[in-house]
Structure to design on (1036 residues):
């Protein structure tokens, strides 16, 4: 299996992601934003960073990169599993591959911290991560406040598209455990084979880095599969 | 144009005319103006900097290059330096701080090293305007560091009225490069091409270095505002990757970043260090604005630019390599064998001067022969504040004091985990980084206690160095090198110059006694507004080799029953220079460190940590021994606390004095520690025991008890706790 | 009288606009003819004032004191009666 890691000008978690995949003994390749041929890739990660400096709106400029059109086609045609982390999540939302949008944190400040997230809806791409699973994962973002248009939240939950929510240490989704003002504490969402999350699993590969739960999340994603059209 | 318009004195102007054998034209005058400014020439401080020790077994590159370099192990060298961006941050806090971060990163990149970490040291006043400045500076540091993808792994902040109109923003950057890589500014050879890489040049920051950073502030600071520069971390990231790729290709002869005084400084330094000259074709420089004159282009401080130097035959390959990053790449000149820099503009000779005049001939301030001994003399006796009573609220007040308070509100705005090397981040004495593929890691500490230098700059300089080495010692790290960020007042005032000299003498003596060379740094003078100078502030950064970076040594109470000791207790504790003394309204002089005693303590501590005898440690610094203990208690697993036994006599000074060289430790085997200390000639003082009770309690004549939850509320600044 | 003040804040012409520069590149990549892209802010404020002129003066003061950063931004103020 080969995982493609998309790189935009200004991406800065690309090497952390590559290192994490190498730690998991997975073959991977960096894909520059101008590439339009994604054949030969079995999975794609959009890593974190500040693509195009996050100028205009986070992810807005990168969403128009040539590679994104190619990615969109592969998702539509072959249900290519795609994981967007932090800035990658923002890009996927701006491209319309995921519902909703990410706004400035409620504090108006960048925030770097270790948070607890709870798996809300189990997803076929993450075997072993049952609903209710708790993970300790780092966040580091300025625009991570997830939002949906009015009336959109119910549908998101009904369609099992809410993947992760920020929770307290006991796994209870509480207002005070919300680090950025996301609606309903949402930390990650999915649509079909596309999943996005604000926390950085690639930074949580070893307990000496603060948590090894990112290893668990990424290895699960590497094992998970979806039937075409699921 | 008048010499004063570019910041030169009449005497300096005459020296220039004598060197040239003619009157300089306006452009030439501008070039001398920036390069002979205090900021670029170090004319007041260079002779003093000669006092510092620069040699050591780990030193690969001492002062004189863009950054110092020390050897980590057979595979990696570490490049590191601290730099200030004080005046720009006062004028425009967000962009001033952001461009400061960008600048120090480029210094490290220019050494061919990949930046791994940033650290910040901030000094502000206590009024509302200062809080606003601090918020802007923290935003700016985060904005640049976070976006370019370099973690800010440690730092410190401190406060005082003298910083009210002269905030200090010092940022340290550390990078690694493979051993054997020697790229720098000294490798340009005749015939080499000068390639300008990065942002297009605009009229940003003209005279930022010569005027803004080299004169005191007064009302005219307002009118200097149009020179503000904007940082672009996105371009900075592309420039960093392009430069590192160009260095790694082996096709470059030299690299020099463009910082203060832009192209002028960059070209002059490059030529001077390479023993060469250059022809510069200014009309080829890509400009952002129309109608820019040679003067504008030479003096612009537009950020995110780098000068690459390569043989003619390498240029096309380099261009292909750099094209990937989609940033402007332009050949703007070439290196010549003679000591002359000729600036051409549309075929006209706009200026011609010797680079050695620009970069090497600025007259240095002469030193009085007795200065070196004079500044080492004890300062006039300042009554050492020794409190006769002990108030239990002092601990809460000290924890809640601006200099001691929890810094999470600051460091949470910095990405400290990107690059996945941070095994110990902010909130500790020192940061610890792993280096992928190496057993050895990096320990980094930064400290600049201005309060300790307020009355006795020598004590402050020595205390700063000793504190940084102490912080490295709490990780059993071997010190490899130091970088010094000197911040002081107007050197033309005898009192301020003397303070500067005393500060450097203290740094020099401590660096020698603690056997750690200074490999580079930065000097920022003229930190004065309306005649009020800052406390002389030496921001010292220390880099050490960590032997087990995946398991940083702990700094909390971990096991019930372990003994708590103070290693190297101050034999005559007093409150001089301490946080509590400041709160009580009589700051006093910081006691001068007993450097040989400190050195023995740090060696001993490192040995005890490595032998597993000391299980956790914390350096005594701001707030003294009780604050260090409270911090350990607050970081401990819940339900653990400490019971202390101390003599009632002198308890206030023992508990809150900040005398140098002290470390709080826990041990499983107290007798073993005492025996080993005895053999090493180090004094230790047993203070108490770790208990299953979430409080710090103290038996000292009376019984005192502080619940950890209450300590934590005071430390986090919860209103009503610890208010004096 | 009630007025809506609109304050438009733009970076001064000589100040580098990294966001505008990056956006310009993408617009061009998308096939648009796009040059000198500059990004600013528009801030609207509703206020009570005796006249449109007084509302404009108030808007100007708001801009000078808070809404714009005189170090690097210019602003313009417009007013409509509600």
């Amino acid at each position: 299996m080969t995982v493609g890691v998309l790189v935009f000008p200004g991406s800065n978690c690309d090497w952390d992601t590559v290192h994490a995949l190498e730690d998991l003994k997975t073959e991977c390749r960096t894909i520059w934003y101008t590439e339009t041929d994604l054949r030969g890739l079995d999975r794609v990660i959009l890593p974190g960073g500040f693509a195009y400096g996050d100028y205009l709106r986070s992810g807005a400029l990168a969403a128009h990169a040539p590679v994104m059109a190619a990615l969109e086609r592969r998702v539509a045609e072959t249900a290519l599993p795609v994981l967007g982390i932090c800035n990658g999540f923002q890009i996927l939302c701006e491209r319309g591959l995921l519902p909703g949008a990410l706004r400035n944190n409620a504090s108006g400040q960048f925030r770097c911290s270790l948070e607890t997230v709870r798996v809300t809806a189990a997803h076929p791409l993450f075997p072993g991560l049952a609903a209710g699973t708790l993970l300790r994962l780092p966040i580091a973002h300025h625009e991570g406040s997830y939002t949906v248009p009015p009336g959109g939240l119910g549908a998101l939950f009904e369609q099992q598209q809410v993947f992760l929510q920020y929770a307290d240490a006991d796994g209870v989704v509480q207002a005070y455990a919300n680090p950025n003002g996301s609606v309903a504490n949402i930390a990650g969402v999915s649509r079909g084979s596309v999943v996005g999350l604000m926390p950085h699993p690639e930074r949580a590969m070893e307990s000496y880095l603060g948590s090894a739960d990112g290893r668990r999340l990424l290895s699960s994603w590497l094992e998970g599969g979806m039937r075409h059209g699921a | 144009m008048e010499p004063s318009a570019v910041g030169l004195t009449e005497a300096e102007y005459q020296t220039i005319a004598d060197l040239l054998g003619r009157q300089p034209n306006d452009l030439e005058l501008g070039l001398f103006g920036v390069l002979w400014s205090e900021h670029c020439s170090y004319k007041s401080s260079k002779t003093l900097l000669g006092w510092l020790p620069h040699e050591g077994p780990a030193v690969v590159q001492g002062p004189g290059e863009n950054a110092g370099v020390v050897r980590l192990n057979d595979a990696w060298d570490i490049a590191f330096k601290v730099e200030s961006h004080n005046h720009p941050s006062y004028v425009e806090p967000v962009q001033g701080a952001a461009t400061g971060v960008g600048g120090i990163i480029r210094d490290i990149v220019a050494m061919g090293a990949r930046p791994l970490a940033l650290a910040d040291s901030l000094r502000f006043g206590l009024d509302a305007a200062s809080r606003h400045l601090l918020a802007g500076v923290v935003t700016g540091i985060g904005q640049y560091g976070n976006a370019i993808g370099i973690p800010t792994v440690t730092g410190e902040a401190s406060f005082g009225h003298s910083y009210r109109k002269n905030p200090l923003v010092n940022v340290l950057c550390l990078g690694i490069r493979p051993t054997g890589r020697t790229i720098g500014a000294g490798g340009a050879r005749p015939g080499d091409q000068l390639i300008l890489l990065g942002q297009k040049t605009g009229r940003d920051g003209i005279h930022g270095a010569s005027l803004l950073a080299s004169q005191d502030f007064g009302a005219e600071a307002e009118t200097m505002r149009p020179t503000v520069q904007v940082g672009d971390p996105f371009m900075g990231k592309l420039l960093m990757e392009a430069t590192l790729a160009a260095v790694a290709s082996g096709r470059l002869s030299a690299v020099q970043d463009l910082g203060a005084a832009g192209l002028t400084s960059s070209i002059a330094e490059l030529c001077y260090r390479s023993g060469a000259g250059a022809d510069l074709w200014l009309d080829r420089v890509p400009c952002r604005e129309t109608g820019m004159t040679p003067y504008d282009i030479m003096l612009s401080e537009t950020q995110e630019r780098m000068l690459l130097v390569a043989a003619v035959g390498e240029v096309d390959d380099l261009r292909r390599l750099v094209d990937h990053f989609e940033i402007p790449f332009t050949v703007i000149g070439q290196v010549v064998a003679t000591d002359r820099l000729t600036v051409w503009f549309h075929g006209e000779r706009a200026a011609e001067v010797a680079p050695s005049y620009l970069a090497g001939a600025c007259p240095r301030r002469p030193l009085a022969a007795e200065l070196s001994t004079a500044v080492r003399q004890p300062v006039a006796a300042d009554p050492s504040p020794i409190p006769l009573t002990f108030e239990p609220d002092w601990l809460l007040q000290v924890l809640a004091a601006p200099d001691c308070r929890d810094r999470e509100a600051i460091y949470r705005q910095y990405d400290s985990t990107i690059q996945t090397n941070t095994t110990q981040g902010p909130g500790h004495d020192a940061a610890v980084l792993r280096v992928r593929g190496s057993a050895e890691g990096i320990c980094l500490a930064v400290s600049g206690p201005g309060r300790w230098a307020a009355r006795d700059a020598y004590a402050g300089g020595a205390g700063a160095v000793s504190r940084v080495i102490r912080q490295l010692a709490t990780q059993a790290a071997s010190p490899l090198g130091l970088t010094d960020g000197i911040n002081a007042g107007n050197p033309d005032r005898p009192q301020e110059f003397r303070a500067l000299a005393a500060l450097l003498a203290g740094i020099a003596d401590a660096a020698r006694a603690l056997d750690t060379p200074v490999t580079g740094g930065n000097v920022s003078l003229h930190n004065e507004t309306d005649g009020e100078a800052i406390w002389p502030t030496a921001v010292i950064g220390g880099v050490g080799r960590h032997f087990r970076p995946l398991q940083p040594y702990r700094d909390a109470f971990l096991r019930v029953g372990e003994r708590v000791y103070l290693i190297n207790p101050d034999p005559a504790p007093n409150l001089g220079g301490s946080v509590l003394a400041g709160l009580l309204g009589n700051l006093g002089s910081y006691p001068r460190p007993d450097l040989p005693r400190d050195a023995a303590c740090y060696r001993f501590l490192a040995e005890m940590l490595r032998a597993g005898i000391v299980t956790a440690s914390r350096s005594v610094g701001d707030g003294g021994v009780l604050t260090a203990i409270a911090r350990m208690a607050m970081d401990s697993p819940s339900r653990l606390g400490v019971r202390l036994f101390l003599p009632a006599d002198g308890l206030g000074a023992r508990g809150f004095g900040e005398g140098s060289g002290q470390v709080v430790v826990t041990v499983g085997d107290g007798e073993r520690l005492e025996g080993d200390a005895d053999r090493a000639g180090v004094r230790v003082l047993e203070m108490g025991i770790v208990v299953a009770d979430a409080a710090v309690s103290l038996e000292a004549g009376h019984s005192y008890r502080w619940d950890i939850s209450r300590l934590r509320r005071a430390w986090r600044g919860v209103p009503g706790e610890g208010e004096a | 009288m009630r007025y809506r003040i609109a304050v438009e804040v733009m970076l001064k012409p000589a100040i580098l606009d990294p966001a505008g520069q990056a956006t310009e590149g993408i617009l061009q990549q998308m096939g648009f003819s796009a040059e000198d892209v500059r990004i600013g802010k528009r801030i609207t404020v509703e206020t009570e004032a005796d006249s449109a002129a007084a509302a404009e003066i108030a808007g100007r003061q708001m801009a000078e004191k808070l809404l714009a950063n005189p170090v690097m931004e210019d602003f313009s103020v417009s007013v409509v009666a509600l």
